[in-house]
Amino acid sequence: MKLSREIKTAFLVIGGILLFVFGFSFLKGKSFFEKDKIIYTVYEEVEGLVEGAKVTINGLVIGKIMKIDFLPNTTRILITMSVRNELDFSPQSEAILYEAGLIGGKAIQIDPVFDSKNIVKSGDTLISALKPGLTELINKQIEPLQLKIENMLTSADSLFIGVGNILNNDSQENLKSILKNLSLSTSKINDASISLVEILKKNQSNIDNTFENFADTSDNLKTITDSISQANLAVAISKFTNTIKSLDGIVATIESGNGTMGKLVKDETLYQNLSQASKELEDLLSDLKSHPKRYVHFSLFGKKDKEEKSKENNK
Fold it and tell me: Is residue 113 scored above 90 in pLDDT?
């Protein structure tokens, strides 16, 4: 029996519709051939979670998100999940909403609690929990840094405002002059350093000779030091000490007035005698100067001298 073209077309359209429904259901996480458990969980906020997102245990995909909608008469979000039927974890397990990646959206990870007497079944609701994503962790780390940067920028702005107020036109001109002078000084220092390098290059041999002479002098000083260290300084110091003691004894004797030197220093009689003798000598010299003829007789004629002597006696 041959089928008409219309019947073939009808079969083709129906097959296409069935294939489309099967594919759409597969993409939505539904299966016509496997019996899955339908379980639920509730979150306050599910930004980034979409229908068809994976449900995992320890990274292994065990199901998908079937539906995301509001819990009746509330703003809380009801999540409908389809998981494999053979799983036997407890309804006390946690459904953790986590970030699957920077561009991978969000997914739900089940932290299973196993209890053979209480196995999850379709219609059960799991405890919900949130796991901070990488973006949230970065935001938490960046937020204090952002506050510090904002405070620093505010302080810098205030500083610049204060500097702007302080640096009037005269101050700015002075600052420009200072910077110009600093630039000139730096240039001169650079030129001086170049000249110094040239001088050092020209006098390198003299500098080497100077250091060699210094090394020789250092060796000589070392030799002299070794000779001094080898000398018998203890004996010299001992003799010097004895000499000092003897001088102390002599000075003590002089201070006490004993001996010739002591009497010369301490006895005032000698001073008085010397003073009296000096005075008498002074008187004698004065009289000799006033009457020299009393002490000196010199004449070519002796008679004249006698007459003068008789005249003086008569007076």
Answer: yes
